[in-house]
Write a structure and sequence with these properties.
Elements: H1 2-26, H2 33-37, H3 44-47, H4 57-74, H5 78-94, H6 110-123, H7 127-132, H8 142-151, H9 154-160, H10 191-209, H11 213-220, H12 229-246, H13 249-278, H14 285-338, H15 343-361, H16 365-374, H17 378-393, H18 416-431
Helix pairs in contact: 1-9, 4-5, 4-8, 4-12, 5-11, 6-8, 10-11, 10-12, 12-14, 13-14, 13-16, 14-15, 16-17, 17-18
Amino acid sequence: MRTRRKEQRVQQVQQEQRWQREEGEEGEGEQDDEAELSVPRISVHKVCNLEKEIIREEAAADLISHCLVRALLAAEDPGKQDKVAVAIQKVLELFSCSSDLQIDTPALTPERIAALLHRQAQQGLTLEAHAHGRQGGLGGDPSRGELLWARLDRPVREVVWQFLSTNYAFNDRDGSRLLGPHPLFGSVPDFETWVRLWTYDLIVVANNVETGMETHIFMACRFVVREHTETALFLLPHIILWLILRNYPDVATRILQEINRVFQLTVADSAAAAASDAAAAPNTAATAAATATASAAAQVKEETKRMACQTLFYVLDKLWAWTRHTQLLITRLRQSRRANQGTERLADVLTRQKIMDAFLRLIPRDLVAETAYCCRDYPRALMHIEQHMRSVAGRDLGANGVPAPPPPAGLGVIGGVAGASAMEVDEGGAGA
């Protein structure tokens, strides 16, 4: 065990040095090199794409390359390293990455992709079969392992290659136990603790709801997300999407409660701060010192709220992007149906789209707009208040003497609201 850990640490140091050299070359000429080195080369916000389902090789490669390998290199003690090692081993195992794969595997060319996909088609191993563990079981197609492995860069392969032949297992008695009081936000000390615990809690919920390829991947990473924020942020949209599409009302309610809790606390604290400013106390030395102390304490809390709100905006953006992509898919499938193809899949996609639309309608757009305004994200606030106006009015704003709903507090002074309303009227007139 000690020899393995020593060899693993040597590989970690070499990998860190290689990445630092690459990042140093990209940031050459910049004044703050140390700050650049501390930032991941690619943010998980950019890497995470719900159009690439977590059971696809592309998403699994992103998970390993941008999250798990970095978590392994950042682990400071053997216990944390072992947790990440088990996660990497499990993900590779789920995608049938055998010990026969080599570090020097050729790059994934279009011809190679076509050959592997053709082999999958001949064997009848579809993506849906893997998702439900049918026709050969979870990850039963060797070509999937080759596809995943070929998508990993050589430096990543050098780190994870040793886990192709390991046989670790979790020593976990509480892997299916939910966390304490819900919602979690407001009862945890900081942002990172909140996002890690919430992701872990949703993984346990997913495992208790159904078992499949997705839940096996989530459960493999459940201990990593409790200690590595980037992995939690990458998996959070995937877990929420998967849970919503399962269409369990109590699960959807659990997610909505957490989202509303974050938004409502942010808006309430912002309103309280505004009321306090309006009734300022006399400016004595004692009150000035007390105000400075309270302001410093409130700033920490404000940062936690702001980061939590931005995380939820990031998740919601991913869900709305998924609905747009699904709508395009529905259009293509309807065209295929005219040629007597894809009828069964069209019905499934339509059902998924309806479930997601119903969930998103439960999130108050006016609350999202007011939260965005409190976070000084004014473009987002304008976008959502316009969407709220559309949903409430249901027709041209002001065209028939119907008053528009009031904007969030403080947002009415922004001239962009009038522009959004004018745009809505113009669109309605054009379509008349």
